[in-house]
Amino acid sequence: MKYEPIFPFFRGDSCEFNTWAPKANKVQLELCQSGQLIEMQPQQRGYWSATIENTKPGTRYKYRLNDSQSYPDPASLSQPDGVHEASEVVNLKNFEWTDDDWKNIPLKEMIQYELHTGTFSSTGNFDEIRQKLKYFKELGINTIEILPVAQFSGHRNWGYDGVYPFAVQNSYGGAHELMTLVNECHKNGIAVILDVVYNHFGPEGNYVGNFGHYFSGKYSTPWGKPINFDEAYSDGVRNYIIQNVLMWCRDFHIDGLRLDAVHSIFDFGAKHIMQELAEKLDVLSHETGWEHYLIAESHLNDVKYISPVSSGGYGLDAQWSDDFHHAIHTLTTNERNSYYMDFGETQQLSKSIKDVFVFDGQYSEFRKKTYGNSTANNPGEQFVIFNQNHDQVGNRMNGDRLISLTDFETAKTIAATMFVTPNVPMLFMGEEYGERNPFYYFVSHQDPELNRLVREGRKEEFKDFYDNTNNAVDPDSTEAFENSKLSWNIEDNAEKKAMFGCYQTLIRLRKEHPVLQLTDKNNLKISEQGKLIVLER
Amino acid sequence: MKYEPIFPFFRGDSCEFNTWAPKANKVQLELCQSGQLIEMQPQQRGYWSATIENTKPGTRYKYRLNDSQSYPDPASLSQPDGVHEASEVVNLKNFEWTDDDWKNIPLKEMIQYELHTGTFSSTGNFDEIRQKLKYFKELGINTIEILPVAQFSGHRNWGYDGVYPFAVQNSYGGAHELMTLVNECHKNGIAVILDVVYNHFGPEGNYVGNFGHYFSGKYSTPWGKPINFDEAYSDGVRNYIIQNVLMWCRDFHIDGLRLDAVHSIFDFGAKHIMQELAEKLDVLSHETGWEHYLIAESHLNDVKYISPVSSGGYGLDAQWSDDFHHAIHTLTTNERNSYYMDFGETQQLSKSIKDVFVFDGQYSEFRKKTYGNSTANNPGEQFVIFNQNHDQVGNRMNGDRLISLTDFETAKTIAATMFVTPNVPMLFMGEEYGERNPFYYFVSHQDPELNRLVREGRKEEFKDFYDNTNNAVDPDSTEAFENSKLSWNIEDNAEKKAMFGCYQTLIRLRKEHPVLQLTDKNNLKISEQGKLIVLER
């Protein structure tokens, strides 16, 4: 498989436009400001290209298919007017990077901090994150993990409805603002991980299906058709995703990608797309001079994703695991509904600390099947764990954070537990000062019908957890978004200040204590005495 | 996962009935002769059981669900009156086996012979196959590979419409006749491989969905819903399939299973069902004292299926490969339509002999994607190859065998080529004497609508190969079946006799020549001089 360029790029002043449109018999580049239509030349296997002299960044364009409808570029780098309008030419090479000495943070030393750009600050953009770099350093975290920034419909979205994987959300500040943030992070010793979604496309502004065979007809996901990684024309789709991974790491200096829901990425081909991504990124790492990580979000409890290729794995660097969260959440909140029904035993918390997976081949009453396999050959640094995250908080009807469900002292104990495990700890923004604002699910599609469907779908999901879902906040209301914003003002609030101090201390301990730096799961003894767990490291 | 019994079995005179029916709130055993209804006791996770004293083999029964409808047993061992009627109690233990010294044939020594029971002889049953054991020995083959025998609707079917995986087709002679055949084969030094279908159920008499969650809602196959190996309730389905594999090898002394179309067996769980089958069969082999093989039919050109578990494979023993067939077929017939478009180069035949897979990472114009991976670490004995088989002949509109498409001398050259490769050769019944009768696709569903759908579906498929499909034989006609029967009468026909002699010689050479016994692909040099291929071993 040859890797084809698929977004506009500059050679000097001329810009080469490329698109993969195997479904089209004719493709024209439509320059929107002048109304000019330029014939694209067909290349092999459905690629089309045209080179335009003296193109300026900022040029608006679309691709016109078969002399009929024009659409934004599936690999657009910028959608300044949203998902339905023209794409904008961006020169990814004209940013002045000053992070030459950057070498990434080793996984085993990472303290990750998950944040959602839109609700992290009152203005909800990258610039405001940059204002907090000093704060991050005071806190002690060394890695931020940003929820998806690929262009989605509207301004209020977690990011999982993205439809332009190459375009940085306009309302967050676009491509160059993200580069500025990453550059500053690196200069301050902070790594940047980006959440990317390769399992589906969002429902609004989803035009890629007009160009090529992006979607699978063989499998399904809860969010619509999955991406076609193994059927006819999948080479073009694979190239698109591979180019996306390479773009983030090469052109945006991103240190790692968090691959959303790999359990909904279906590939029965002879080389799994995960393995191919890992291999391509490995080659890139040799060029950039630093390692870039691939971290899977997976519900499968299957080490295949993170095991080396030599032993039949896909060779990703790490994966998230929910089991520690579920174990400690059920023990501290006494919740037992829905997927929490499988948890609630003290020894499960011990097992999650010792083995990461509580389910490594046991029957789950919730899933109604046996699942999981053994982590024995995978060190602790291959697993990212958390006390809460955007999903575990935001998928609750009231968006409650852990501190609202337990109490101040318990929240501190839970945090301390996370920091003494051999895994990579991850905080959810605000957790470090005991934020009590909720974090809701929110959308702002332009199509009211879509918003209605989301609203009803969420209510339906909540029925597993709550008797009465009448008071659920409407995901498409501005309140859902505004009320999810962090409240900050730590200095003015004794509780927040105390919690912040606690996290500072725990993180310092984690980073300084020689034993807590070890990620070897095998040098760890754990035993229970009633509700007391004794961990010896 | 605990393995639960799921078909009736005897302890002395009493018979234990077991069924997996997690969808039912109440299950009754209906004894059809007496009309008696016996309450089944619920066991854990959807299993139900009842023990009946003094049960006689031959007893007819059904399972009555929720006080409403009665259905045949999903794990029925016999359907004497077809797919819609009562199941029959069979005692699998009361057969007198006399094959104590049997040890199976090593894969590398196998010469396989694929046969379809219904058309192998005029009466189309197991007894007639048994009459040919002397013939097989004269020919020199040491393994027969029988197309699926699981109960299907009607009497005319290739076997891929089976709906009772545990019941031996009544019109072939049922369970004890199959045992008799296997026993005699073993006494004559012949191994028996059975084709089994674990990717879908046939369309008629398919009642299992009333009992449990047998089918996947997440994936699809060309033949309908695939079997549920990884979703909720999949433990019960996996147990059903595992028990089926164990039954054939333990109770029927079957030497190997040919797993139909594993590319349509979808399992994203942490342990693939293929791996689990291999592990279970390995345990059984220790009990029976001889090795039982699992041989995958796969279109994926992916060695994952046959590589050892230690290097991330599923640990199956071997797989079929079409590439040798396609390479030699195109060169000798000049056909280039449909999937043959990817073949036709002399060097592809060389590659198929040297590496088995012609496509081990190349782009296929027919599939419109890159596929396959390297066989470098897998010896030749892990690949079964053929000049023709039931699919390659029977999926042609006119059911033409290779000899009808080429000529007598070419057919001999093709045979010779197969026998000098380092792979496991497989003949298709009749090939050894140059049978010129066609082998059609045939069905005989009771539902005329199903027959109509099959008829039209086949015509649609043929459009890729033929300009005019008006003369296609109707699959549901008796002619399609009757005309597919072998003509035999070798002695009376000089061409047949000569071809038989040629195969005899080739097989003897293969078995006796020390070089031709080697399955090491690496000690093999191959080069082309125009249309001449020089193979040095």
Quick structural summary:
The first copy, chain A, has 537 residues and is an alpha/beta fold.
Write a structural description.
The structure is a homodimer of 537-residue chains. The first copy, chain A, is α/β, with parallel strands linked by helices and 537 residues long. Chain A is 27% helix and 18% strand. Chain A is built from 14 helices and 23 strands. Chain A has an 8-stranded parallel barrel, surrounded by 4 helices. In chain A, β15, α6 (273-288) and β16 (293-296) form a beta-alpha-beta unit. Chain A is globular. The A-B interface holds A 1, 45, 217-220, 230-235, 263, 266, 268-271, 300-304, 307, 309-313, 360-361, 363, 367-373 and B 1, 45, 217-220, 230-235, 263, 266, 268-271, 300-304, 307, 309-313, 360-361, 363, 367-373.
Percent of residues in helices of chain A: 25-40%
Q: Main beta sheet of chain A, described? A: 8 strands, parallel, barrel
- Oligomeric state, counting identical vs distinct chains: homodimer
Looking at the structure, the CATH topology of chain A is TIM Barrel
Derived structural class of chain A: alpha/beta
Largest interface: A-B, 39 and 39 residues
Q: Give the termini distance of chain A in whole angstroms.
A: 47 Å
**Coarse shape of chain A:** globular
Low-confidence segments of chain A, given as residue ranges, are none
Average predicted confidence as pLDDT of chain A:
95
Report the CATH C-level class of chain A. Answer: Alpha Beta
Taken as a percent bin, the fraction of beta residues of chain A is 15-25%
Widest beta sheet: strand line-up of chain A: 10-11-14-15-16-17-20-21
- Please state the second-level CATH architecture of chain A: Alpha-Beta Barrel
- In total, how many beta strands of chain A? 23
Number of helices of chain A: 14
- CATH superfamily name of chain A? Glycosidases
Radius of gyration of chain A: 23 Å
Can you tell me the number of structural domains of chain A?
1
